[in-house]
Amino acid sequence: MRAMFAAAACLAVAASPIAGALAQPAAGGDIASKIVNDPGAPEVQGAKASLRDDPVVQGGKALRIEVPRKGANTWDSTVGGAIKKPVKAGDTLLLAFYARLERGENGATKTVLPFAGVQLVDAPWTPLFQEPVEIGPEWKLLKVKGKVDKSYAAGKLKVTVQLATAKQAVDIGPLIVLNQGPE
Fold first, then answer.
1. Rg of the chain's alpha carbons, rounded to an integer?
2. Which parts of the chain have pLDDT scores under 50?
3. Dist. CA 77–CA 157, nearest whole Å
4. What is the DSSP string of 11-39?
């Protein structure tokens, strides 16, 4: 599953509006060199996930996440992963991913995921930046951007999308975090 999703992640970056999210890659660099996480290895907590083919989403693969119930906390079901490269104070990070609501509770056709962003990997799990994002039945490119407050070593931050707002099925494309450097 990981290799197939990783290949989809590469296609999603190279051939999508995500590539245009960076104004200018550094001289001699490419967009892939700006990725600070592993888009092909999402971690799902508190829900079942399965990889599926979807020719409509960029890259042709999606992760279907079956959220079993509305959680006591919206973070009872999440998808995300570690930021695997160090980042410096003043860097701007851009989280970009495609998502859609496959099936909402009681026939809902849209939902708000209350937290999509980057946070500390350990307690107190403080967010560096985050935004709520609304999804519906059609694929939507979502972008959440923020500035790094201080320098962090690899593995000290993670990307998180909170999903436990209802019993629902959410399709997610690769979660891609780009370091745009200081702006």
1. 16
2. 4, 7, 11, 15, 21-28
3. 18
4. HHHHTSTTGGGSSSPPTT--GGGGB-B-T
Mapped onto helix, strand or coil, the DSSP state of residue 106 is: helix
The pTM (predicted TM-score) of the whole model is 0.87
Nearest to 118 by CA among 129, 110, 109, 107: 129
Looking at residue 3, its pLDDT comes to: 52
What would the two tokens of residue 38 be? 């592993």
- Cβ(161)–Cβ(171) below 8 Å: no
Rounded to whole angstroms, the Cα distance separating 75 from 60 reads: 27
Check the CA dihedral 160-165-167-168 and report its sign: negative
Strand-pair partners of 94:
145, 178
* Token pair belonging to 83: 């930021």
Taking CA atoms, 181 is separated from 21, 104, 109, 144, 173, in Å, by 13, 38, 37, 15, 24
Q: Which two tokens stand for residue 27?
A: 């001289």
Count of CB atoms within 10 A of residue 120's CB?
14
Helix (H) or strand (E) holding 3: helix 2-14
Which amino acid belongs to residue 54? D
| Cβ proximity of 99 and 139 under 8 Å | yes
CA distance 44 to 84: 17
